[in-house]
What we know:
single chain; alpha+beta; Nuclear Transport Factor 2, Chain: A; 6-stranded mixed beta sheet; 45% strand; globular
Amino acid sequence: MASLRIETLRAGYRAFNRRDVEKALQMLDPQVEWPNRIARRVLCGQQALRQYWTRQFRLFDCRVEPEELVEEGDRILAIVRQRVRRLSSGAQQDLQIGHLYTFRGVRAMKMQVFTDLEAAKRALGGSVDG
């Protein structure tokens, strides 16, 4: 049986893929730290993330599907398939990446992105097979 944190993440990804920003934000701590990889900085708080996602959805069609979720203490590694299409040009990207979440209670308070899945597994604690 999946933990409440895993179920929270699954619901968050479904909401994100539906562009339901308010529902997706429910999986996150009010003071969440979230990477803005393009600007190379960390966003702090749900309001900053709300603005980021709203802007992102005007520029890109993004779909993020969790393929594997591994829980270790207060952290979950989500290995995801991320498909991104730039709306202006149609350019597409299809990647398998890692999202490492740190939780406070049932809400994620921090998310990190790893393009190197082995590094993501090491960051979790090396407990992921494969």
